[in-house]
Write a structure and sequence with these properties.
Elements: E1 2-7, H1 14-17, H2 20-27, E2 32-37, E3 50-51, E4 61-62, H3 64-74, E5 82-93, H4 96-102, E6 107-112, E7 128-131, H5 141-154, H6 162-167, E8 185-186, E9 189-190, H7 200-218, H8 220-223, H9 230-245
Parallel strand pairs: 1-2, 1-6, 5-6, 5-7
Antiparallel strand pairs: 3-4, 8-9
The chain binds S-adenosyl-L-homocysteine.
């Protein structure tokens, strides 16, 4: 996959792209990420990327010309498998389903806004707007990093074991089950006995049940959307009943 990021703060990407999974994914050539300084697409001597808003009001607006030139260079013409994404609080909220969809593209071009945002005419060259949540940040750089990180995890070979991605929260519509590692006992808290049983099927069943419990407790809204087997539905009704009896 190819990812081009257009920003006025290219240095913000240095840390995230040179550490951990993202750096490994690039070394393994699973992904080719390039960060482009929007100022290099300006033609005036001050390299200006922003200007005052027409109609008055506070703040500055990002000018359309440098963005147009950058997009034209990175995507000379529209082809399948490419997406120009503007990171924006007004976009569709990023969730695991959207992350999975984005991971199927061959080429993503991410545009990071700043100040009051971009000149609205830029939207003519954008395929979609994506938000990372209902709050406003100072720029699109952190959202772009969030998007790149989450999409990368979906690409084969980035996370060592594919099954660990499939188990993650949201992938199958549920939250992840609780994990434990050594020591077996810490400050009086023991690791659940079942995990020492060596009985693979029973461990798997326990984990699925724990996922259901965690989802029910922390994100009951997710349970409405997920498809459960008749046994799992029964299990959920039982835990609801026991918790009610206990007055929880
Ligand atoms: N006035 C704009 C917000 C500007 S914030 C509005 O209300 O819509 C400056 C830039 O930060 C935006 O152009 C966008 O690129 C980025 N940004 C801010 N919050 C974001 C969010 N929740 N998700 C994605 N990008 C965001």
């Amino acid at each position: 996959m190819k990812i081009d990021i257009i920003t006025i703060f290219p240095r913000m990407f240095v840390g995230p792209l040179t550490e951990s999974l993202l750096s490994r994914a690039q070394e393994k050539q699973i992904v080719d990420i390039k960060v482009h300084d929007l100022r290099s697409f300006t033609e005036d001597k001050h390299h200006s990327v922003d200007d005052r808003p027409f109609g008055g009001g506070c703040g500055m607006v990002m000018k359309p010309e440098p963005i147009y030139r950058a997009l034209k260079k990175l995507r000379p013409k529209k082809t399948k498998g490419q997406q120009v994404i503007f990171l924006s609080p007004q976009g569709k909220t990023l969730d695991q389903k959207l992350v999975k969809e984005l991971s199927s593209y061959r080429h993503l071009i991410l545009l990071c806004g700043h100040y009051e945002g971009v000149d609205e005419r830029v939207m003519n060259w954008v395929d979609r707007e994506i938000s990372i949540g209902d709050y406003v940040l100072t720029g699109g750089e952190l959202p772009a990093m969030v998007l790149v990180d989450s999409v990368m995890r979906m690409l084969p070979g980035v996370v060592k074991e594919a099954s660990s991605v499939e188990r993650d929260s949201f992938y199958n519509g549920l939250l992840d089950y609780p994990n434990y590692t050594r020591p077996e006992e810490f400050k009086g808290a023991r690791v659940p006995e079942i995990l020492f049983s060596g009985h693979h099927a029973r461990v798997e069943q326990w984990r699925r049940q724990q996922s259901l419990i965690a989802t029910w407790k922390k994100r009951p809204d997710l349970l409405k959307k997920v498809r459960l087997s008749p046994e799992e539905k029964k299990f959920i009704s039982e835990i609801k009943r026991t918790h009610k009896r206990r007055g929880e």
